[in-house]
Amino acid sequence: MNDRYQSPLSERYASKEMQYIFSPDMKFKTWRKLWIALAETEKELGLPITQEQIDELKAHAEDINYDVAKEREKQVRHDVMSHVYAYGQQCPTAKGIIHLGATSCYVGDNTDIIIMNEGLKLVRSKLLNVMAELADFAMKYKDQPTLAFTHFQPAQPTTVGKRATLWLHDLYLDLHDLDYVRGSLKMLGSKGTTGTQASFLELFEGDHEKCRRADQIIAAKMGFDSCYPVSGQTYSRKVDTRVLNVLAGIAQSAHKFTNDIRLLQHLKEVEEPFEKNQIGSSAMAYKRNPMRSERIASLSDYVMSNVMNPMLVASTQWFERTLDDSANKRLSIPEGFLAVDGILDLYMNVVDGLMVYPKVIEKHFMAEIPFMATENIMMDAVKAGGDRQELHEKIRQLSMEAGRNVKERGLDNNLLELIAADPSFGLSLEELRASMDPKKYVGRAPQQTEEFICEVIAPLLEENKEVLGMKAEISV
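Below the sequence we write its predicted structure tokens.
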């Protein structure tokens, strides 16, 4: 296999579970389940189909004769009819009633919905596991003060745990979107060549109620509540856009997380997992590059751009059906799911092994906190009898001087020393340093973290505890 292209999504990134969902076996076995459901439904509604025929179909539901189907497709250039033929070869008694009244989209589109539903189910499980890891991380570091950043400039402090809740909240929103879209998925049902069910109306001798019931029965047999009420030959291709929008939302959240991790790793405050024998650079042996976060970002870019595919397909369909969606769907839908599957495995792996370096965080914090503490210092000086307006101007001038010392002369921040030396403030250096306790400047960050985890995330994880406990396997 080294002499032909192999998709990195299957070779390097996606799990075996997600690869199976989009495998030929899953697809064609689902086709056969749909043909069985159709035959059973038609029998229940009075068509002359025997139990013997249905039993024969069930006996060969799993052992697909791929060789026969492939050879037939070379002749007829039609994948569905090739598999109808191959199934008929195995089921001679039932041969005449396979696919009765249906069009290709009966198996194609219904299978696509079933597969996307299964894909979303796996994505949901992994998303919840990432959320569980982030919740644990946030609680562990809810009290660890750190500089916050606006515009990547030092700003009013937060805590490491509170920052993690921002990543977690994005995923929480994604989960809501996923649940909504997955909950809205319906089967196409048995709508016929232009969506009018004309062939089924003919089969049921003009009985409209049986046509309606056929949709309902097939949906129930395949594990769905209902079918889309109207369609052309296909379900609306906007459904594919809605599904990939959910995947792109997860990609956005993951990318934002990796931006922060990569910046924090540059600051040496937080570091993604780095294995004992891992090589960071072929030339610079000392390097510890955030390669997993970079891979998440790279795959996320792909998923976000991939949303354009179903958008273009949906917007350019003609009337009741054209076939210019087919080749695109075969690529964009599976690859979107495989890429997000890889993203979530990497996300889980990174959070599980995140390293936090409190000493470095404290060093950066203490270098900036004098600037941020100036308002508190000024208030303390006013309480001691100083003039607020005069002190404001003096502290502004001293802050500018300390800033020049840092930026132009490469010195440490000496703002506290400058303030202590000015008798207008009436504060000693010891008093000023005593007011520099980082925990005084983080506001409600620890409490916000605890409230969000305990009141919002913990109940959600408890409701879904049966899917928790996953550990990601990273190929490279």
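The first helix runs from residue 8 to 13.
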